[in-house]
Amino acid sequence: MAGSLLSLEFDRSSVTRVRHLVMVSAQEAGLDGIVLEDFVLAVHEAVANAVRYGSPPRGIAMWSEAGSLVCEITDKGPGIPAEVLEREEPATRFDFGGRGLWLMNRLADLAVRTGIDGTTIRLCVALP
């Protein structure tokens, strides 16, 4: 991790604190405006999904490397079902959930590693 900005474990009670730390760290890295807002929202979606669907320990790490800001969110849950990963459109407005990964993919560069041992979501955005 070239320029480590943030690294911690989180749970349901710390989601708001994590969002604030991500915002401050991303600002310090140089993001601002809509790019900052989009990145923070994408990270928040990943954190919320880890709390909702994953199991402890849940972690977040953020760093800068090669002109990009990178954030990884991890959990030890059961993994993301294939039908969720393959969905090209968000769930309908009547479905509960089903928009997080779709939204993350539109707000940042998204990479997902998932399986029975847990999930890692990597979100990247170019630094100015």
TrEMBL record:
Sequence ranges assigned to domain Histidine kinase/HSP90-like ATPase in this UniProt record: 11-124
Cite the Gene3D superfamilies for this sequence. Histidine kinase-like ATPase, C-terminal domain (3.30.565.10)
Domain of life here?
Bacteria
Keyword annotations for this protein, in alphabetical order, are: Kinase, Serine/threonine-protein kinase, Transferase
What Pfam families does this protein map onto?
Answer: HATPase_c_2 (PF13581)
Name listed for the protein in its UniProt record = Histidine kinase/HSP90-like ATPase domain-containing protein
Native species: Microbispora amethystogenes
